[in-house]
């Protein structure tokens, strides 16, 4: 049986402070425009819910669902599958893709390509977390909450094998065999 230890890396208060700043920047960058904010399920759901509350612009929201990790693993399979597509048109819209974390970059790279061929007016990536040390695809977020070291993190929407998404803080997960 696996034993897990959690160590807080970023507290909820720190997250919210940063989320407000990201929302302010997005509000300024898109002044006078409308947004289509697209969350990447499931990881981005809590981040997106907090982010949109502080963006002072007219917007629609939608979601995509992808899977790239299988079962109890902490490394990407590298194979991205689209499980559920957006329910709104993308053409001529200012699209912001909202992710929980960019690790290898393969997931967001796949989504960026998928959305760019649909002729949006603009397409930006907003990720709460970034693990730049593990990048395989040549892609970086336009808006980023925190750059973190190469550790597996859970909480605030991020999971390990489906669990821990409900934790308020972002914590490093250590697996002890
Ligand atoms: P990438 O395709 O390697 O960039 O991985 C992106 C996806 O992997 C994210 O949307 C997360 O769902 C998941 N992921 C990557 N690193 C972590 C982590 O440290 N904790 C939880 N999920 C992670
Ligand atoms: Mg995810």
TrEMBL record:
Ranges of residues in domain Phosphoribosyltransferase: 14-160
InterPro entries for this protein: HGPRT (IPR050408), Hxn_phspho_trans (IPR005904), PRTase-like (IPR029057), PRTase_dom (IPR000836)
Reactions this protein catalyses: IMP + diphosphate = hypoxanthine + 5-phospho-alpha-D-ribose 1-diphosphate; GMP + diphosphate = guanine + 5-phospho-alpha-D-ribose 1-diphosphate
Cofactor(s) the protein needs: Mg(2+)
Pathway linked to the protein: Purine metabolism; IMP biosynthesis via salvage pathway; IMP from hypoxanthine: step 1/1
Any GO CC annotation of this UniProt entry: cytosol
GO biological process: GMP salvage; guanine salvage; hypoxanthine metabolic process; IMP salvage; purine ribonucleoside salvage
Subcellular location: Cytoplasm
Domain of life the protein comes from: Bacteria
Primary subcellular site in the record, as a coarse category: cytoplasm
GO molecular function terms listed in the Swiss-Prot or TrEMBL record: guanine phosphoribosyltransferase activity; hypoxanthine phosphoribosyltransferase activity; magnesium ion binding; nucleotide binding
Family, per entry: Belongs to the purine/pyrimidine phosphoribosyltransferase family.
PANTHER family: HYPOXANTHINE PHOSPHORIBOSYLTRANSFERASE, HYPOXANTHINE-GUANINE PHOSPHORIBOSYLTRANSFERASE
Record's protein name: Hypoxanthine phosphoribosyltransferase
Organism: Calditerrivibrio nitroreducens (strain DSM 19672 / NBRC 101217 / Yu37-1)
């Amino acid at each position: 049986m696996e034993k897990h230890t959690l160590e807080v890396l970023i507290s909820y208060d720190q997250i919210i402070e940063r989320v407000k700043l990201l929302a302010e920047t997005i509000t300024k960058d898109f002044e006078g425009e409308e947004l289509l904010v697209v969350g990447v399920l499931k990881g981005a759901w809590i981040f997106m819910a907090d982010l949109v509350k502080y963006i002072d612009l007219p917007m629609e929201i939608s979601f995509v669902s992808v899977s790239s990790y299988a079962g109890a693993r902490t490394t990407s399979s590298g194979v991205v599958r689209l499980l559920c597509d957006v329910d709104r048109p993308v053409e001529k819209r200012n699209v912001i893709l909202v992710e929980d974390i960019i690790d290898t970059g393969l997931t967001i790279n796949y989504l960026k390509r998928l959305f760019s061929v649909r002729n949006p007016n603009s397409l930006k990536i907003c990720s709460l977390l970034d693990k730049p040390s593990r990048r395989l695809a040549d892609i970086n977020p336009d808006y980023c909450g925190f750059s973190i070291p190469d550790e597996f993190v859970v909480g605030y929407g991020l999971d390990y094998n489906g669990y821990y998404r409900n934790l308020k803080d972002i914590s490093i997960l250590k697996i002890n065999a």
